[in-house]
Amino acid sequence: MSTDQAPPTLEHVAKVAGVSRATVSRVVNGIRNVDPELREAVERAIEQTGYVPNRAARSLVTRRTGAVALVVSEPTKHTDAFAGGVFADPFFGRVVSGVLSVLGPMDVNPVLMLVDSEKARAQLINRLRQDRFDGVLLISIDPRDPLPAQLTQAGVPTVMFARPARSTPISYVDVAHEDGARLAADHLVARGCKQVATISGPLDTPAGQDRLSGFRSAMARHGQAYVPSAEGDFTQTGGERATEMLLLTQPFDGLFVANDLMAMGALDVLRKHGKRVPEDVSVVGFDDSGAALSCRPQLTTIRQPVEDMAAEMARLVVDRISGEGQRVTSVIFEPALVVRGSS
Amino acid sequence: MSTDQAPPTLEHVAKVAGVSRATVSRVVNGIRNVDPELREAVERAIEQTGYVPNRAARSLVTRRTGAVALVVSEPTKHTDAFAGGVFADPFFGRVVSGVLSVLGPMDVNPVLMLVDSEKARAQLINRLRQDRFDGVLLISIDPRDPLPAQLTQAGVPTVMFARPARSTPISYVDVAHEDGARLAADHLVARGCKQVATISGPLDTPAGQDRLSGFRSAMARHGQAYVPSAEGDFTQTGGERATEMLLLTQPFDGLFVANDLMAMGALDVLRKHGKRVPEDVSVVGFDDSGAALSCRPQLTTIRQPVEDMAAEMARLVVDRISGEGQRVTSVIFEPALVVRGSS
DNA sequence: TTGAAAGCGCTAACAC
DNA sequence: GTGTTAGCGCTTTCAA
Fold first, then answer.
1. Helix (H) or strand (E) holding B301
2. Which of A15, A79, A324, B139 sits in a 20 to 30 Å window from A199, CA-based?
3. Full-prediction pTM beyond 0.85?
4. Which residue of A has its CA nearest to B85?
């Protein structure tokens, strides 16, 4: 009855069932060529002993660990983890939630790793060489991140969340940024906006580029040839600064902001300048993050199905690991307009 | 030059260095009794071959995996992962960040697990019996969660984030809830509030209880014998409802809300009822979560050093695993008042 | 269809 | 101090 008794082994089960280790192994691994009677005997023995296979022993021979790494790759260490950092963003939790929803039931658990330095990157590569992970789920922030290319080259099954900035033969899931931007444009026009402007994300990121170009071309189709824009950095302060800039140039009655965090900043600045939202300026954000709900007025925004995307990302690695999905694949999700108070 | 060449083994290194496997093993594991010259030769050979120890092989013999589980234990599966769920809360990311800050450098990586059903719980216990984790970091939401007791009983080194509702001999980190509540009380009184009220958390949770009782006793010391209160559930809507209730009873010019999310809801309802914050009612929240910054006015709140707490939690498991910290321990952190616009 | 036996790469006695 | 050796628990040829 002691707690730290040695757990039952294959050998153990074999003895109880009166068969060889090999047979037990076959049953455990669901290999067909086993006499039904023996199979049943083995199953009873497993039940009886409470046998659970030892993963270390198994992966020593199979060279598979049944583990995938969930890697967050950030350019530099953020000193204040609270203010900066992906982790502070609820987005991270949503990814985790989506990933867990598919991996959990498969008995695969993601191992969390933060890569925020050269050293950490080397360590990750090492870990992979130790056979510690069968695959990698990668969230990369920095557009100049060498990690996607390194993982591809190392031959590690990898799937990214969002298309890498540098063109790389790697699988990823993403949202149709242009379509989202178009939804925003259509909505603003439908609300009667005559003169719209936009705050873009960093233009060295795919999301920054695509949301801007998508918005511009949609507005062009609506007859507005020129859309004033200011580049932001996806942070609240960045959104504030960009709004100030925009306010200096031309008047506008509609504003598309490339993410919710910046949109929050925009809301503040607009209020400070005596502009009422949505009466004077209609605002649309992007993401549908928690921020969209916590500001006043609540944000009309473009929803990214983050959990679904993360779930798909997990499915893709699992497929690649099992050898089913050999080719590099991308899965693009459609965003949706969520109308709230800001427009 | 092929990518999938078999990685170098101990044997390999031993041959290159001209010593036995045992010696290489000693060097790798930093055991002292090795001739400096040989040690150097071995180190060169390791460098040269690019050797990295195989964790599976190692843990097969040591019965240690060098992995800890980061378990989030929720009562039931939340259908809408976005709205509900711990993961949507930025708090989760902050915990992850803190945990990673100590585990990362130690080459230990947390394995993420969500326990939201009986089945998942059984699976976790199984995983532990497979020797897959050396320790567990547990975030438990439900006050009736049997997991803390189960892990204790199973003899797994476990450290919890926040004191368990059911008294259990288990290690944990927590914040001094009463002290935080006292800070809030002192602040409200200092701001000139004459009649304060409070919205508590669920009274079946330690946080709910302690913040309420701490606030009440601090107010008693300030001469306010009775503090009207309404019980909330730590959600924004819960905060709204509780505020409505409170507004029906007696007037108040100061309000302590047991967490920021509920405080946000309170802000909305107060505004709706024509109460200005902080002119008519001073509001203080608890947590200093992202929500505190994203509402208007920004929340004066009691800051929990979540990252530090999480980091300490990680240190505690590591100590317990290495056998240094054998006794059940608790580490309590002091909260701090953060003054912003709401009071 | 089943069993015997050879390792997977490592650590830890134990002998030298 | 160093090497030899016996496993850790499992999968997987290879014979039977």
1. strand B300-303
2. A79
3. yes
4. A97
